[in-house]
Amino acid sequence: MPLFKTITVDEGTKVFIWKVEETYEWLAEGVELTEHCQQRVDGMKSEIHRRGFMSIRHLMAEAGYKDHDLYYDDHGKPHLRDDKYISITHSFNFTAIIVSNKDVGIDIEKQREKILKIANKFTPLDEYHTLANEDALIRKLTIVWGAKESVYKILAEPGCGFLQHINVIDFDFDDYKTTTHVRYNGIDRWFDVKFMEFENFTCVYAMPSKSKAKA
């Protein structure tokens, strides 16, 4: 199928989401990869990873880019060769990119019970005692993880801990947004975060805050 969803966040920022249902052969048809990216996809053992990788190249085409317009720095952060910023994510059969004129991060996660087992490694669990049931807790923790992952992708700062250094301000599901604060190694920054849910997946994206929020 073509694009699953396109979101215009603001004048200079767009999100593109793909639901991966096509074969690898269909997705690879007509796509020219750099030598580095060809080696990466050739080395992938998982078929869904290979299909996801190629679907991202279709998302880039939707945004007006080819694989040769993309490169990665020493921290593995993707960059475009023009003056735009890009962030990339994939989870199972969904992939997404965000392209902007400001630094951005994006994350897609499948809502899974597994997150309950690792939650205390990335957020203080006592903050969520008011949630009605386990499903609501899984949803909220997935949003919190996605917010922290998205912000971490922007910073690409080794050693920055999800639990110790990145704080997500509490929110309601109906808000579809929150703010996140990072204090680490001289960094003291706020980020605006938006989220959405579909087909038991959560998509979260972050960008520098327009105004300094108060915790």
TrEMBL record:
InterPro entries linked to this entry: 4-PPantetheinyl_Trfase_dom (IPR008278), 4-PPantetheinyl_Trfase_dom_sf (IPR037143)
Domain 4'-phosphopantetheinyl transferase: 104-182
Coiled-coil region: none
Highest taxon in the source lineage: Bacteria
Entries under Gene3D superfamilies matching the protein: 4'-phosphopantetheinyl transferase domain
Keywords: Transferase
GO MF assignments: holo-[acyl-carrier-protein] synthase activity; magnesium ion binding
Descriptive protein name: 4'-phosphopantetheinyl transferase superfamily protein
Organism: Christiangramia aestuarii
